[in-house]
Design brief:
By secondary structure, the chain is of the alpha+beta class. It contains three helices and four strands; from the N terminus they run H-E-E-E-E-H-H.
């Protein structure tokens, strides 16, 4: 009887299919620097914005994964750096029942897409505290970035074979 119950439990788990659940969202690291303050506030404001995006994943234990989205922004007013702001927005996700390509896509595109609004809001709040105008970053297509990275990796792999 016990054997049948454990088999039923395993069948129920496999019948559930893939599982995904956001466990926690948090700021892992945060920095702000305004090297030309207060002089920068006396200049006409004509900003140039540079945004760098990076993601990384860590398997925590079992089916739990940490995904870290890093947004680094450098804003120049003319030749002067007005400010540099960076946030590492992280999340812990429960992910199970996915094949390798689906897991890679989930960690590389789906999870960062969930974290991006939190990171954008954190950066805007940080920049406003420095008394600069909010950045209002446009949405990012993480699926396209993920596809570009896969293509780049495939090209690098095929170039090294030749």
């Amino acid at each position: 009887m016990i054997e049948q119950s454990s088999n039923d439990a395993m069948a129920d788990q496999s019948a559930q299919g893939p599982q995904f659940a956001l466990q926690r969202v948090y700021v892992r690291d945060l920095s702000f620097e305004a090297p030309k303050s207060p002089e920068i506030f006396r200049q006409d404001w004509t900003p140039g914005i540079s945004l760098d995006i990076n993601t990384r994943q860590n398997n925590l234990e079992g089916d739990f994964y940490e995904v870290v989205l890093t947004l680094s922004v450098t804003v120049k007013n003319g030749e002067d750096v007005a400010f540099i702001a960076e946030v590492q927005q992280a999340g812990i996700f429960l992910i199970k029942g996915l094949d390798a390509p689906s897991m890679s896509h989930t960690l590389g595109a789906f999870c960062p897409n969930i974290l991006f609004p939190y990171a954008r809001e954190t950066l805007d709040s940080l920049v406003i505290r420095g008394t600069f105008p909010a950045l209002m970053l446009a949405p990012v297509n993480f699926d396209a970035l993920y596809a570009q990275e896969l293509s780049r990796q495939q090209n690098v792999g095929s170039d090294s074979i030749q």
